[in-house]
Specification:
Blueprint lengths: L9 H29 L4 E6 L14 E6 L6 H11 L3 E4 L13 E7 L8 H11 E12 L7 H16 L9 H6 L4 E9 L7 E8 L2
Parallel strand pairs: 1-2, 1-4, 2-3, 4-5
Antiparallel strand pairs: 5-7, 6-7
Length: 211
């Protein structure tokens, strides 16, 4: 039976509009970090969940960019941002758990504020490794769970059911760094940092290389 796209309803439309309006404010907080980690990208790069194009300005010109976006309401904003920046991007529709690309076809894969909402994190990381060429780079910046036994961690757990419904599956208490550490990448560089944001202030960023 054909599957229903969960990203076609009113909430998905609203999230696309909110992300479009809020991406500049978030980027102001992480601009230096993004410029630092994006600067080494080159070749064919896949961005998982490019959304409304918040990362487009940070990609070096030498990158040949593909975006995999499950929410159809994001695409209008993404195309507008790409046109404004004079940036070429091929936009694919699909889920991160089943990337519609050939094995070892990408020099890099990027995810920012995406791994919190994928339904199967381990499968997503497996797919990222599958499409990366040997020596390819996985670059990430994600909000994650607060430290265990803290008040913020309790808040994240308490609010999670409503948060997931309103933010298309986002889990504010996901320990994403543990899954990345266990995914079998080589030369993993990962750092934790915190932004002054409610609920989702704890973040990680880094890069990992496929063996």
């Amino acid at each position: 039976m054909p599957q229903t796209n969960p990203h076609t309803g009113l909430i998905s439309r609203l999230n696309a509009w909110m992300l479009h309006k809020g991406e500049d404010r978030y980027n102001q907080r992480v601009e230096e970090r993004k410029r630092r980690i994006f600067s080494g990208l080159s070749g064919s790069v896949l961005e998982i969940g490019p959304g409304t194009g918040a990362n487009l300005e940070f990609y070096p010109e030498r990158v040949l960019l593909t975006g995999l976006e499950p929410n159809p309401h994001m695409k209008r904003y993404l195309k507008e941002k790409a046109d404004k920046l004079g940036r070429q991007i091929e936009i694919l529709t699909g889920a991160a758990e089943d990337i519609p690309l050939e094995n070892e076809s990408m020099d890099g894969v990027v995810s920012t504020l995406v791994l919190c909402s994928v339904s199967d994190l381990q499968q997503t990381l497996h797919e990222i490794k599958r499409v990366l060429k040997p020596g390819g780079t996985f670059l990430f910046m994600e909000h994650v769970a607060a430290q265990e036994h803290t008040f913020l961690r309790r808040i994240q757990r308490w609010i999670k059911p409503l948060w997931r419904r309103m933010a298309e599956g986002c889990r504010p208490d996901r320990e994403t760094w543990k899954a990345i550490e266990e995914a079998g990448f080589n030369e993993l560089h990962l750092e934790h940092f915190t932004l002054s944001l409610p609920v989702v202030g704890p973040h990680i960023m880094g890069r990992a290389t496929k063996k």
